[in-house]
Structure prediction request, 259 residues.
Amino acid sequence: MNHLRSILLFCACSIFLAIRTSAQKPASPELDKMPADLETELALKALPPQLRDAATVYLLDPAKGYYVGHKGSNGFICFIARTNWEWAEYRKDVFAPIAYDPEGAKKIFPMYRDAAAMRASGKFTPVQMKDTIVERIRKGIYKAPATGGISYMLAPVMRVYTGKPGDNNVMTMNMPHYMFYAPYITDSDVGTNPNSQKGPWLVNSGNSVLGERKGPEGYFIMPADAATTAKIMADGKSLLKRLADYSAYFREDAHAMHH
Prediction:
C-alpha cells in the first residue's frame, strides 16, 4: 500500500523541498518529441470517451514547451506530463497522460505549462525550476481550484515515479483513476484511511513544502473499478503496441497492475 501511495504522489503532483545549490548547472532537457498522432492519442485516452472529441489537446515541443495541438470546445484539456517539477530533476522517461476539467485547466495546468517552458529554455536548473514554482504558489500566482471538480488519468499506461520525492525510480504501469479536487485539507478532516486497499486516498503533498493545510493542489484519488479498467485495457490494446514499438520505456513492466 505504501508503494501504491508513493506512485499516487506523482499522479497528484506531489511537491518536495529540494536543497538549493547555486553550483548546479542547467541540465539539458534531453526530451524526444513524440510523434504528434501518438502523443495526441495517448493524451486523449486520459479522458472518458464522451469528452474526447471536444477536448483541447496540448502537445509538447521539447524546445519550447506546450502548444495547442487541437483546440476543443468543452473546456476540458489533456496532455502528457513529461516533467515532474516536484522531484527537481530532468529525465526523459516520464510519461503521464493527464486531463483536467475547465477549472483545473485554469488553475493547475499552468504549473505543468510553466515547468515545461522553464525546462525547455535551458535557463533553469531542476532545483531552480522547482523553487520558482513554489515561490509562485506562495505569492498566489498559482491558486487552488475555486470549485469542486475532477482530473482524469484513465489512459491504459503511464510511466511514473514509484517512490516518494527523492526516490527517483520510475515504472511503466497501469492504474486508471479519477482525481477529485481537495485542496487545503488532511485525512483527519474527512476521516479517510491512508492504508485503504481500495481508496479513496487523499493526497495533498504540497503541504510538505508550504506547511500543513497550505497546499493548494490536493485530490481525492479513486481507482477505476475492475470492469472499467478491463475495458480501458482492451480498448487501448493497439495503442499499447504502438507505444511499445515507439519506445522501450513503454514495454518495461507494462503489465503491472496496482489497484
